[in-house]
Design brief:
It contains 19 helices and 40 strands. By secondary structure, the chain is α+β, with helices and mostly antiparallel strands. The protein is globular, with a radius of gyration of 28 Å.
């Protein structure tokens, strides 16, 4: 790979399409452009994507042949569901006897509400036997006559016996409609939820197919030969053909792009990512170097769609300030009252929706003779939103105004303005509050950050984030209005991501190919678990990931009998520039800071060419001594941390016997059954996370599979945590 090769990420938003070019070797940002999203062009959003790509290549002086990777994220699927702009689904249920009763009930999916007054357009037909081609053709004719634009086949227990659903689609193919089988979308049990997920996927299928074809043709015409990928809602990317099969995976992918950028660019191993825009803040979790993912709720119901666990708070850079004005206060407006004022809340109404400019971005002359007033921005809003009426018109007081007044927004930031103008904008409010401008600004940020803090505190508890290592990282154009103040309130380490205003397209450019395979296998054997892992690995390789760099994380849930394998890999082996790698002193300092102790108390426990393992000892009165561990990579970034772990260094050849002894000694037995230790292996450039497996035998089998095809003298380090 040469330094001329670039990775391109394009984020298609509701208003603008952002594109970035990233050096494929150093992963540094080379250029960025913004163009209006082309919703109304005859080629749809594809036109804006190509326009952004053309401008980007011109800006960075590169040719289409220099593009090593190209991916785009889009809100199109999400918007289609929110707006009810979907295709009519023809659902064909299969079954006899009790099975027929179950499938016929699925016709009720047509009552799902997409948007106020808009229900999911669905027509249902039933066949008793999938091999009865005449009956299947009649069912297809029935749903197409009723307006179906896409066909879904569903049958009880098709996860185990998919032949029936496949037979229906084989017969229905002559109708020429897009079609899918419920078992192709998810392999989890639960007929109703599985079918609901498949039906929602089908509802957006025709529209997404048309977009995929236009984007594909346009990119090819532009001379791009790199594989075209699409952002998934779980933080990875998938091949365009996979998007054609499962467009539902692009729903909710907007927040996923941002956290992917924070994960890859900022190298977070434990923390909370806050993407702050003008109206809201999306809050997501990174735990032990991985994004937190869960089954998403769609249309008010749970689904089998694995999406980023994101919590949204109605506080952003453009959020307007709400005040209560006491008696005697010389403010005016349709909500004005007199007396000493106080800040009561921030948002959820933003200046953008209210159609008002930010006061802090006004020209000083425009703020002349400014007076404080309270208004009702929209008809249904309370009349307590603070505005300034000044020589230049009416202006909104926002979180961005407060952050700039305190000097919290760094120069060059998207939201930066003249601090003196921001202070002048807040002066009338400060006078009404009876405080100085700095105190007024702090009260505003307190009110906004406290709303975000409530959610951050909740996710920290839910995911049991390690307070010693968890950081707050802010992204989005409004990052400086929330993250720094929240860090001060919580005492957590906080920082704003580099290039925060384009963190989403950066995330798209840096994202890894990802695939998740889930199977319900009661009493899964080690062979069955390995088979699921192999299936996930094959899936990402088939989508263009380099086979040598694929990592697979496996989880076996004994309560639900679910075997889950998540495979990730890059479309090319990334050979990063190591000229700026951290030295021993830097890595030790990073480990000591994470361990919250003096470097003199930290020692090197083990290492591989890619990672160094550091540890210390924490003695506690009347309690057992803990041995916290940190794994630091060559860049000086903490990639793994364990509150109390045993570390053992060995070679690939000697590892099976050593691991067998370690696992046996650390396995616990109790009323909850057998619980093998949480095991992670440092091997080559990888950290193989096997902590999701509780049974000792499959755990050791997976460990052996990680080491297959490696030289016997290659070093390997095991990090073992006993489960409580």
């Amino acid at each position: 790979m040469t330094t001329d090769r670039i990775r391109v990420g394009i984020d298609v938003g509701g208003t603008f399409t952002d594109a970035v070019a990233v050096d494929a070797t150093t992963l540094g940002l080379l250029g960025q452009v913004k163009v209006p999203t082309s919703h109304h062009h005859e080629d749809g959003v594809a036109h804006g994507i190509v326009e952004a790509l053309d401008r980007l290549l011109q800006q960075v002086g590169r040719d289409p042949a220099d593009v090593a990777f190209l991916a785009h994220g889009t809100t199109q699927a999400t918007n289609a569901l929110l707006e009810g702009d979907v295709a009519t689904v023809g659902l064909i249920g299969v079954g006899t006897g009790p099975g027929a009763v179950l499938t016929r009930r699925l016709a009720a999916l047509g009552r799902l509400e997409l948007a106020p007054g808009k229900r999911l357009p669905l027509v249902y037909a039933h066949v008793s036997h999938p091999d009865d081609k005449g009956a299947v053709r009649a069912a297809v004719d029935e749903v197409t006559a009723a307006g179906a634009q896409v066909v879904v086949a569903t049958e009880p227990f098709a996860v185990d016996r998919p032949e029936g659903e496949r037979a229906v689609l084989d017969t229905a193919r002559s109708a020429g409609l897009p079609m899918t089988a419920a078992h192709e979308i998810t392999s989890l049990y639960g007929l109703h939820k599985r079918t609901r997920t498949a039906v929602v996927n089908a509802a957006i299928l025709p529209r997404m197919l048309a977009t995929a074809d236009l984007v594909d043709a346009s990119i090819t015409k532009a001379g791009i030969t790199a594989p075209l990928m699409v952002m998934r809602c779980d933080g990875g990317v998938m091949a365009l053909d996979e998007m054609r099969r499962r467009p539902l995976l692009t729903v909710l992918s907007g927040p996923a792009a941002g956290v992917a950028g924070a994960l890859m660019q900022e190298r977070i191993s434990e923390g909370v990512f806050l993407e702050t825009g003008g109206t809201s803040t999306d809050i997501s979790v990174v735990r032990r170097g991985k994004v937190a993912v869960r089954h998403a709720t769609m249309l008010g119901r749970s689904s089998y769609l694995n999406a980023l666990d994101v919590r949204t708070v109605g506080v952003g850079g453009g959020s307007m300030i709400r005040v209560e004005l006491g008696r005697g206060e010389p403010a005016r407006g349709d909500g004005a009252r007199g007396g000493r004022a106080r800040v009561t809340a921030v948002g959820p109404r933003s200046a953008h929706i209210a159609g008002l400019p930010y006061a802090c971005f006004a020209d000083p002359a425009e703020l002349r003779d400014a007076t404080l007033a309270t208004v009702r921005p929209m008809a249904d809003d309370p009349a307590d939103y603070a505005v300034l009426d000044a020589a230049g018109g009416r202006y909104a007081l926002t979180m961005t105004c407060a952050a700039n007044a305190l000097g919290r927004v760094p120069e060059g930031d998207f939201a930066h303005c003249d601090q003196q103008v921001a202070q002048a904008a807040l002066a009338p409010l400060a006078e009404a509050l009876g405080v100085d401008v700095a105190t007024a600004a702090a009260r505003i940020l307190d009110a906004g950050a406290e709303q975000v803090r409530a959610v951050v505190d909740k996710v920290v508890r839910e995911y049991r984030l390690d307070p010693d290592t968890a950081v707050l990282v802010g992204g989005g154009g409004g990052a400086a209005t929330v993250t720094p103040h929240l860090a001060a309130l919580t005492g957590m380490e906080g920082r704003i991501a580099r290039h925060n205003e384009v963190i989403s397209p950066i995330g798209v450019a840096l994202a890894l190919v990802r695939e998740q395979i889930e199977r319900i296998i009661p009493g899964a054997t080690q062979e069955q678990i390995l088979a699921v892992c192999a299936e996930a690995e094959r899936a990402v390789v088939a989508q263009g990931a380099a086979a040598d760099g694929v990592e697979v994380e496996v989880t076996v849930d004994p309560q639900t009998s679910t075997v889950r394998a998540v495979a990730t890999g890059a479309t090319e082996l990334r050979t990063q520039d190591r000229s700026h790698s951290a030295d021993d002193t830097d890595r030790l300092a990073a480990a000591a800071a994470s361990l919250k102790t003096d470097p003199d108390r930290v020692r090197v426990l083990a290492g591989t060419p890619a990672h160094t393992v550091y540890g210390t000892e924490v003695r506690r009165r009347l309690r057992a001594t803990r041995h916290p561990v940190r794994v630091v990579d060559a860049d000086g970034v903490v990639r793994l941390h364990a509150a109390d772990a045993q570390v053992a260094a060995t070679t690939v050849g000697a590892a099976p016997e050593l691991l067998g002894n370690l696992v046996r000694e650390a396995t616990s037995y109790g009323d909850g059954g057998v619980r093998a230790p949480a095991l992670r292996l440092l091997l080559g450039s990888r950290i193989a996370d096997l902590s999701g497996v509780l049974d000792p035998q499959p755990l050791l089998a997976l460990a052996r599979s990680e080491m297959r095809d490696r030289a016997a003298d290659e070093p390997v380090v095991a990090v073992v945590e006993v489960r409580s």
